[in-house]
Write a structure and sequence with these properties.
Elements lengths: L44 E2 L10 E2 L10 H11 L6 H5 L11 H15 L4 H12 L5 H6 L2 H8 L5 H19 L7 H5 L6 H12 L9 H9 L10 H9 L7 H14 L24
Antiparallel strand pairs: 1-2
Helix pairs in contact: 3-4, 3-9, 6-7, 10-11, 10-12
Amino acid sequence: MLTRSRSRGRGVGLRACAPAAAAEGRESHRPVKQQRTTQRLHVAYEAADREDGEGAQPLTVAGWEPRDWRQQLANIRTMRSEKDAPVDQLGAEHCYDPSAPPKVRRYQVLLSLMLSSQTKDQVTAGAMQRLRARGLSVDSVLQMDDSTLGALIYPVGFWRSKVKYIKQTSAILQQRYGGDIPASVAELVALPGVGPKMAHLAMAVAWGTVSGIAVDTHVHRIANRLRWTKRETKAPEETRSALEEWLPRELWGQINGLLVGFGQQTCLPVRPRCQTCLNRALCPAAHGS
């Protein structure tokens, strides 16, 4: 006989191991304390030979998940095992000065993410190297005129707009956060030139907190090719929501780096290298299904 009851729990966020940029102190200036939302879980239980239900075991309630996703992910891990893609050497976690004070490191992480939009990792890394040679900090950026800042970050994509956003964001960080960056996604995306992908990566790299899946064009493209969403998604934020519905949370902090490198080397935007891909037999896009 089956007896059903409900168990309520609270969703608990997982914290990734903090990288070097978040190793010291969490003295972030937080003008607005963020309220955590509470998730209520409803779990069915099956009695184990006891009418009172003692010793009941949770019933497995199957939710949607993509076909073959575990094997597909295992194959991607194998293809990415050498960690030789541009993102592995030149991503945001490699662009800051590890010897700088903690809040300067966090600022440099955010700045590298702002520069990386629509820009190859090699170009972003070059711009960051030139900025760091000038002593990259909130104060040094605010003391530069626009033409100097533009010359240092060129040729990143949309560099003229980024000069404006970097100046505006740096001023806000100085005035409201004491030169540090905020420690919540909501406050980060409120900064000029900072989008959701940048915010989630900044939380992971600068603060050591997995706040969500960082979805850029690579992750968006590959998720759709592998049919990792119930239906085709049109924008990265739509893809992020779709992935977070089913992908185990312990994988959220890994998936960006895995898929970005895979997209840089194998699953290219144009002429993907399907013949050398371990997922060629499992990928719907590879055989047009």
